[in-house]
Amino acid sequence: MKTQGEVEAAICKGMSHFEQEYMGRGPKDIHAHLLGDLLVIRLQGVLTAAEQHLVRTLAPEKGRDLLKQVRSQLIEIARPALDELVQNITGIKPRSLHHDISTLTGEEVVIFTLDAVPQFRESKKK
């Protein structure tokens, strides 16, 4: 059985790999937090050069909306792979997935609601 920190680190590694494979670029920084039956993943620096250019050159609302729409569609298409990733690491099946991205900061947030609270072993205290 893994500690909570080990599970969160494995989620970060898996999500970083997913971003590289599916989106063409990994995040500059990533953090995962398990809060009861919620898994919150915060990725920073995820916009590709093409996405940054799109947002800068189109009207602000149009570029933002188009980018959010494309990213959301990509996440929905990849949902089975993301669900499998989370379930393999936490041992719990995801119930729902929520996603948003900021075109201003390049920050992306992915939240999974799990069917149950994952169990962990206690980490060794120093």
Features:
Threonyl-tRNA Synthetase, Chain A, domain 2; 126 residues; single chain; four-stranded antiparallel β-sheet; alpha+beta; 4 helices
Description of the molecule:
- The chain is an alpha+beta fold.
- It has a single domain (4-114), classed as Threonyl-tRNA Synthetase, Chain A, domain 2 (2-Layer Sandwich).
- It is built from four helices and four strands, in the order αββαααββ.
- It has helices at residues 4-23, 49-57, 60-77, 79-90, and strands at 29-35, 38-44, 94-101, 107-114.
- A four-stranded antiparallel β-sheet has the order 1-2-4-3, with helices on one face.
- α2 (49-57) runs antiparallel to α3.
- The longest helix has 20 residues, at 4-23.
- The mean pLDDT is 92.
Quick recap:
With 126 residues, the protein is α+β, with helices and mostly antiparallel strands.
Secondary-structure blueprint of this entry?
Layout: H1 4-23, E1 29-35, E2 38-44, H2 49-57, H3 60-77, H4 79-90, E3 94-101, E4 107-114
Helix pairs in contact: 1-4, 2-3
Order of helices and strands: HEEHHHEE
Describe the strand arrangement of the main beta sheet, using strand numbers: 1-2-4-3
Shape: elongated
CATH fold-type name: Threonyl-tRNA Synthetase, Chain A, domain 2
Strand count, sense and barrel status of the largest sheet are: 4 strands, antiparallel
CA-atom Rg in angstroms:
16 Å
Average pLDDT rating: 92
Tell me the number of helical segments per DSSP (H or I, 4 or more residues long): 4
Gap from first CA to last CA: 20 Å
Percent in strands:
15-25%
- Which regions contain 5 or more consecutive residues with pLDDT less than 50? none
As a percent range, the share of helical residues equals 40-55%
Number of E-state strands: 4
Number of domains: 1
What oligomerization state is this entry in?
A: single chain
Class from helix and strand fractions = alpha+beta
CATH architecture: 2-Layer Sandwich
Name of the top-level CATH class: Alpha Beta
